[in-house]
Amino acid sequence: MVFLFAFGILVMTFIAGAAAVTQDVIHPGLRATSYAFTVAIQNTLGSAAPVILGKISDLSNIRTAMAVVPFVLVIAAFLFYMGSKYYLKDMDKVAKINLEIA
Hints:
Layout: H1 2-10, H2 14-24, H3 31-59, H4 62-84, H5 87-93
Helix pairs in contact: 3-4
């Protein structure tokens, strides 16, 4: 139970970094729209996970369904890693806007 509790907390730690990246590589005038799309997609995919795991559990058993989770997380980590290869190049394309106090 302690492991599951810790996993439940740690599995969500990617959100801050992912949200920051979506804001860093977009034009400042489109950041609100970008974040809205990010949240909508994260919630849509995240809300589908219990349904998918339930279907796998119905077709086989709960042990098999829960064994799928680590593999999906490894795939997600790989995709984040691949995306990180383009981060600096994408940052260079963003318009630089200086904020000033009037």
